[in-house]
């Protein structure tokens, strides 16, 4: 049973031209109504632009906008301008006179269509005009270039009239075959959405001039035989081929297109979610119905055939909403349905709680829908005051929008894989989109949440109150941010906009979301902190300068790589006073110790906390805090490991606005970070030594990470510096490290790989200090009585000569000799205001290799952790097996008996065999020196006891 006026043409029963004419008139009636609605919504200048566009493509006149050359394609099929259009053209140039095309003229522009939200409830003052320029298929490439130039010039002219117009060149023949370029414009969805784009075209396009779509005349039940049906219409001359335009059918939509469409809408939805949610839900509906999809364009055409010509119900956005509404109601997802309704209301931009500002037809249509939704005055007022929404409303809305976008992404991925339509291209797009969603919305520790992805234009507050508040646990406090200016007693009666344990995290959140701007005034209740208004204002100014909004656009290149740190801002001592007693007494310490890590004679550490704010390549803003005496060290290690992991050093800025020595503190931290980065991130990496208070910290690379070793005092530092190393690693000193041990600092800076360096310094009371940096940078030091340079150096040089000879004998003759160079330097004392300095000395040429009493020790492993020692004095052997605990006393007695003079001088080991402990020969010189020192200490102690008895 047919409805009144329904048309159901059948090819086999014959089709009369009158029926086809009736169908064309129905479509054109809707078309003209929509066009009137478009024009009603435009300003006078925009109205003139849209009315003139068909004429500008129909003619090619040098006095009118869009003229490129005489060869530019022109002529709009079947177009004849009315008097109003011609008056508009003459208003542009009075000398213009329209001339009709001569008989037989072949128009090169087949049709102009306005696409998108124009003439729908979704049209707004901000809507631009997207126009398809359907041209003759036989146009040469050069002609297409000319036509593109014409489009560009018309767009530029329209912009001067306050009208944003985008033209898209369409070859109907290739389009109907699906042969499209990858993108119509930079904002287009690409070739993977051919049928979904065509679906949108058929239900939204408004014919501005030229040929009507052939698709109009094909009944829905003949969509599957579209080619045969349209061929017969033309071949049997029911219609004229030159009057219609064939862009193809809507019989089926490939499953892969839902993935492509969803990807595109999700991409746009991250920044403008309201515009995308509706289309995402439609894509979900289609995917859920696949493969038996009844697309909206077919519903639209069926309604026209059935003579159901209510333009309001055929509004593309209303039809879209109706389909989604049925889908969500059937699934019982009423919360999602409410979100869809809000999206449609916002898209329509009709404020029903007010009585002005919208077209009558839009207002009437929206009122009808709102009555169906049973929205009350309060909800309408809330929606109409959306621009006044503050943090709470925006945060709540964001949760739902993000939930919807995330749901769509998961559904999209699942559908694509279940239908096996995820190819290499959109698999990569899915991955990129997943990263984009993660970067924009994923919550993680330290990440500043962005709550306003296109929900309201502005979240800034003119007045705020910042307060340090106690938590339930009295030992823990938190910072709260309130709207308005509140006194301390009033705080308990108001809910804060945001709470945070750390002040910088709260300020970064306020800045990132635009809650605070340059005009905001903030009342401060610092509580037990040392925060001042001066510091707060400087902190906010710093955030605005270092991370200006909006953040730079996130590129595909950035997303294709793992996120990398781009900028790091360190804020030192936020809300803390490093010298509280000085502040209370209004005094300032005067001392030569100005290092912030060891300030004054007390060597105070003035760096109490560091707040780190990092902006990475995915536009994520991350905040972390370090506090306590190790704050600087922990922050430094994390910064260097971050740089090492990503193989790039982020841009670094350090600021401090605390009450005492702020500039000096910030400068110290920045200098330290920059000086440490070079050696520790170099290739090969070096070690870096710094001093915090009276303690030393040695930073070095261990495996893939840079870690710190705490060395509590000077003795522990020396033991560590003397410990064996697998390979040489340079040691770099911080500017202030070892300031009270200048001689050691001077020595450590001289390290060289493969070189044994001997340093000596003369001390008071006939004492000297010998230091050796061995071939791997290990340090050995010893103090002894000084008589002259020869007696000081010869025993050591003889020992080193013996060790070198022993190593040479253990190597193959074909191997690299690898002989270590030995250098000698004396440390000259500071004088005349000059610091300690080094002077090179030549090695003694005599007495090193011969002419001395040889004392050789052989050390072997004993039971457990013990060692067995044998000592040879000019080849006479003394062993622990023979003499037991008396070994050293027996050897000392023997050596004393061999001396010709009674002069008192130490016993020196001249050679040492450790081959039983080190079969591979990997021990370094410093280890030999330590074993030698232990043996010499035992022998000399025995000798002293013997002399004491005599």
Give an overview in words.
This protein is α/β, with parallel strands linked by helices. The chain has 5 domains: 11-184 and 203-250, no CATH class; 267-441, no CATH class; 460-550, no CATH class; 750-841; 855-949, no CATH class. Helix content is 41%, strand content 17%. The protein contains 28 helices and 27 strands. The strands form 7 sheets. A 5-stranded mixed sheet has the order 21-20-19-22-23, with helices on both faces. A 4-stranded mixed sheet has the order 3-2-1-4, with helices on both faces. Strands 9-8-7-10 form a 4-stranded mixed sheet, with helices on one face. Strand 2 (129-135), helix 4 and strand 3 (165-170) form a beta-alpha-beta unit. Helix 8 (255-269) runs antiparallel to helix 9 (273-289), helix 9 (273-289) packs across helix 11 (316-331) and helix 9 (273-289) runs parallel beside helix 15 (391-418). It is elongated. Mean pLDDT is 89; it is low at 181-191.
Nutshell version of this structure?
Helices cover about 40% and strands about 15% of the residues.
Number of domains: 5
Segments where pLDDT lies below 50 for 5+ residues? 181-191
As a percent range, the share of strand residues is 15-25%
Structural class: alpha/beta
Strand order of the largest sheet: 21-20-19-22-23
CA radius of gyration is 43 Å
């Amino acid at each position: 049973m047919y409805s009144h006026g329904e048309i159901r043409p059948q090819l086999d029963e014959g089709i009369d031209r009158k029926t086809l004419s009736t169908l064309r008139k129905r479509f054109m009636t809707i078309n003209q109504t929509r066009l009137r609605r478009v024009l009603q919504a435009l300003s006078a200048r925009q109205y003139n632009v849209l009315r003139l566009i068909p004429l500008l493509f129909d003619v090619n006149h040098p006095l009118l906008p869009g003229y490129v050359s005489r060869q530019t394609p022109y002529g709009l099929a079947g177009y004849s301008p009315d008097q109003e259009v011609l008056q508009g053209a003459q208003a542009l140039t009075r000398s213009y006179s329209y001339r009709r095309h001569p008989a037989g003229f072949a128009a090169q522009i087949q049709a102009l269509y306005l696409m998108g939200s124009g003439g729908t409830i979704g049209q707004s003052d901000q809507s631009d005009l997207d126009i398809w320029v359907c041209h003759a298929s036989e146009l040469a490439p050069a002609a297409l270039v000319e036509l593109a130039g014409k489009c560009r010039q018309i767009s530029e002219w329209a912009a001067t009239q306050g009208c944003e117009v985008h033209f898209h060149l369409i070859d109907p023949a290739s389009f109907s075959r699906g042969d499209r370029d990858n993108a119509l414009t930079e904002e287009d969805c690409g070739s993977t959405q051919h049928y979904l784009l065509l679906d949108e075209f058929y239900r939204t396009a408004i014919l501005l001039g030229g040929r009507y779509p052939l698709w109009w005349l094909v009944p829905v039940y003949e969509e599957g035989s579209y080619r045969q049906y349209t061929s017969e219409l033309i071949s049997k001359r029911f219609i004229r081929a030159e009057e219609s335009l064939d862009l193809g059918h809507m019989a089926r939509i490939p499953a892969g297109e839902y993935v492509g469409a969803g990807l595109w809408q999700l991409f746009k939805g991250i920044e403008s979610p309201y515009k995308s949610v509706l289309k995402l839900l439609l894509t979900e509906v289609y995917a859920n119905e696949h493969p038996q999809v009844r697309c909206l364009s077919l519903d639209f055409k069926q309604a026209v055939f059935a003579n159901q010509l209510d333009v309001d119900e055929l509004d593309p956005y209303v039809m879209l909403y109706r389909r989604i509404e049925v889908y969500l109601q059937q699934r019982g997802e009423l919360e999602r349905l409410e979100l869809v309704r809000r999206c449609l209301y916002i898209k329509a931009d009709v404020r029903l709680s007010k009585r002005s500002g919208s077209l009558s037809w839009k207002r009437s249509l929206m009122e009808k829908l709102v009555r169906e939704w049973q929205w009350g005055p309060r909800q309408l007022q809330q929606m109409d005051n959306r621009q006044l929404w503050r943090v709470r409303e925006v945060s709540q809305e964001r949760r739902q929008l993000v939930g919807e976008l995330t749901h769509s992404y998961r559904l999209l991925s699942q559908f694509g894989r279940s239908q096996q339509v995820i190819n290499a291209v959109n698999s990569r797009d899915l991955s990129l989109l997943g990263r984009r969603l993660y970067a924009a919305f994923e919550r993680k520790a330290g990440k500043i949440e962005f709550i306003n992805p296109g929900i309201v234009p502005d979240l800034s507050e003119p007045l705020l109150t910042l307060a340090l508040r106690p938590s339930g646990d009295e030992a823990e406090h938190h910072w709260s941010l309130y709207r308005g200016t509140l006194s301390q007693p009033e705080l308990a009666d108001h809910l804060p906009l945001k709470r945070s344990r750390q002040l910088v995290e709260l300020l970064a959140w306020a800045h990132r979301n635009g809650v605070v701007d340059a005009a905001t005034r903030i009342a401060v209740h610092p509580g037990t902190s040392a925060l001042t208004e001066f510091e707060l204002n400087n902190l906010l100014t710093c955030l605005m300068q270092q991370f200006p909004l909006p953040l730079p656009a996130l590129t595909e290149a950035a997303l294709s790589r793992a996120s990398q740190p781009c900028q790091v801002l360190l804020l030192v001592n936020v809300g803390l006073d490093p010298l509280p007693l000085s502040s209370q007494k209004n005094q300032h310490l005067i001392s030569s110790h100005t290092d912030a890590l060891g300030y004054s004679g007390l060597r105070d550490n003035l760096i109490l906390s560091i707040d780190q704010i990092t902006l990475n390549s995915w536009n994520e803003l991350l905040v972390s805090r370090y506090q306590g005496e190790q704050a600087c060290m922990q922050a430094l290690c994390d910064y260097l490991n971050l740089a090492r992991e990503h193989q790039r050093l982020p841009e670094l800025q350090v600021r401090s606005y605390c009450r005492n020595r702020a500039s000096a503190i910030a400068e110290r931290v920045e200098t330290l970070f920059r000086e440490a980065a070079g050696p520790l991130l170099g290739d090969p990496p070096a070690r870096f030594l710094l001093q915090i208070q009276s303690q030393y910290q040695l930073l070095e690379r261990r495996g893939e990470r840079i870690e710190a070793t705490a060395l509590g005092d000077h003795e522990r530092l020396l033991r560590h510096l003397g410990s064996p190393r697998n390979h040489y690693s340079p040691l770099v000193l911080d500017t202030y490290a070892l300031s009270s041990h200048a001689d050691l600092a001077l020595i450590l800076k001289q390290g060289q790989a493969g070189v044994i360096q001997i340093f000596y310094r003369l001390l008071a009371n006939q004492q000297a200090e010998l230091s050796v940096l061995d071939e791997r940078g290990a340090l050995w030091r010893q103090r002894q009585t000084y008589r002259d340079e020869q007696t000081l150096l010869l025993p050591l040089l003889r020992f080193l000569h013996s060790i070198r000879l022993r190593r040479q004998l253990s190597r193959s003759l074909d191997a690299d000799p690898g002989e270590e160079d030995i250098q000698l330097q004396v440390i000259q004392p500071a004088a005349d205001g000059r610091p300690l300095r080094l002077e090179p000395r030549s090695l003694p040429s005599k007495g090193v290799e011969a002419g001395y009493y040889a004392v050789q020790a052989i050390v072997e492993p004993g039971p457990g952790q013990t060692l067995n020692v044998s000592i040879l004095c000019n080849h006479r052997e003394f062993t622990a097996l023979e003499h037991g605990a008396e070994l050293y006393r027996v050897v000392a007695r023997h050596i004393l008996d061999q001396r010709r003079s009674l002069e008192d001088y130490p016993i020196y080991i001249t050679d040492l065999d450790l081959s039983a402990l080190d079969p591979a020969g990997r021990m370094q010189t410093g280890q030999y020196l330590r074993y030698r020192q232990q043996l010499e200490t035992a022998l000399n102690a025995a000798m002293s006891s013997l002399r004491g008895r005599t």
